[in-house]
Backbone:
């Protein structure tokens, strides 16, 4: 693809993205826009992708998309329910989540 062609395709994509952003705002949905110095917005997701890549995907040669989906699904269960996390004082993400839920009021 020549550079002019790529540039002409970027404009409609940008317009579509801008339209989507305005539509979300119309519904009162706040979106996260990553910018300079906003590394905190993505650091947790980046760590998850890195873990998934090195601990699951790169270790298996999946034969089919279905095999990949099953492998990633198993890993996500492991990651959230069984794998201790140093950043969580050795607790799993599930444990941290359930321990920090606000108490639900009960009927008297």
Residues:
């Amino acid at each position: 693809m020549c550079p002019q062609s790529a540039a002409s395709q970027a404009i409609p994509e940008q317009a579509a993205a801008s339209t989507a952003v305005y539509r979300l705002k119309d519904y009162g949905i706040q979106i996260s826009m990553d910018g300079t110095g906003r590394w905190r917005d993505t650091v947790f997701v980046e760590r998850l992708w890195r873990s998934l890549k090195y601990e699951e995907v790169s270790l298996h040669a999946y034969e089919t998309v279905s095999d990949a989906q099953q492998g990633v699904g198993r890993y996500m269960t492991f990651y959230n329910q069984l794998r201790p996390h140093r950043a969580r004082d050795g607790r799993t993400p599930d444990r941290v989540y359930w321990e920090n839920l606000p108490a639900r009021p009960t009927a008297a």
